[in-house]
Write a structure and sequence with these properties.
The chain is α/β, with parallel strands linked by helices and 432 residues long. α6 crosses α9 and α13 packs antiparallel against α14. Helix content is 41%, strand content 12%. The protein starts with 25 loop residues before the first helix and ends with a helix. β2, α7 and β3 form a beta-alpha-beta unit.
Length: 432
Amino acid sequence: MTGHSDPARFEPVLTRDVHLQDSHTLRTYVKGGGYASLNKILKGGGPDDVTQEIKASNLRGRGGAGFPTGKKWEFVPKDSPKPKYLICNADESEPGTFKDRLIMNKAPHRMLEGMIIASYAIDCHKAFIYIRGEFYKEYKILEGAVGEAYEANLLGENISGSDYHLDVVIHRGAGAYICGEETGLLESLEGKRGWPRIRPPFPAVAGYLACPTVVQNVETLACLPDIIDRGSGWFKSIGPEQGPGPKLFCLSGSVNNPGVYEAPMGVPLSELIYDFGGGIDGGKALKAVLPGGVSSAVLTAEGIEGLNMDFESLAARHTILGSAGIIVMDESVNMVNACLNLARFFAQESCGQCTPCREGTVWLVQILTRLFRGNAQRKDIDLILDVTENIGGLSDLSQGSYGKTLCPFGEAVAWPVRSFVEKFQDEFAATF
């Protein structure tokens, strides 16, 4: 589904053609102007020009971390004798997040064109799509799209008559949440257990097979064709200058119209819930919102007032944009039970490599279970805060990250659990 925050100015970009019949086919994508941006760069400026245009657009990654895309590409050493790789991270696993799945289903060639543009910019000639194992339908759609691209000479040797060549390989993951983390993904792609790596070195220097590698999210790549076509100035004109562009928001939970909505970065959260989402299901009162998937700190109903959905605005409220998976909770939701469900997910998905995460997530489930069943003590509240501190450090993003694990999984569990306890203390205290 699509939408806009300002009907007079914003037009859907990423979901522009998803309602068309056979929107996933090459014929439909080309008919709408698809692959014109690829031909533009192959006939025009060199790879450095592409990188500078993307850097000037201020495009930030849509997978969760929000790192500047052009800056990431600049980290790839140009003088390295090793091959360079691009990996499309299609391992979308964050609960409440299903935007990349929409692109893969309805606009796979937009993502693929973005992959070729990014590969050209970093001098990559072999790229991978690492797709979540459960996404079998999407895998088959991508397989068809890649096949169409080869037949149309958009992949392979001498793409569109140029001297550039690129091969794309689709790799299905085995369904582990941790493989959405880029270094865990790299390990998995190399045929090993998906354990995150110690950094540095970062993937741009030593990634897949110890070669320079750029890992980009599906939605991030889908933004590239229009930036090349319309220019960085156009992109920066949409939303906040330091994190602009069209954005896909996933809306789920206690709303009348759940779905994927496209809006400018910086759209008010209340507009997404009440205008796009049709308000709270059953006419109930809003109680809380997870704004960026289950890895984000929860916000109270009062906490979303005047809040815009962009990187800086959410950080100022001590939470994150994350994957933009907005989960809405109404007044009937038991926050202790919701927190317990969240903790169970992280305990199940911890890769077990780091002791604070492996042991701490299990302890959190045990403590929260005691609270939910009504046989906890007041000291258990302090114990939860102590455990989250030891897993993920401070929950105040304005003071930086103090994670105590190899990857951001530690913060991902510590921040939301701690925020539930701190913001709904009365409800937790009422259990004993």
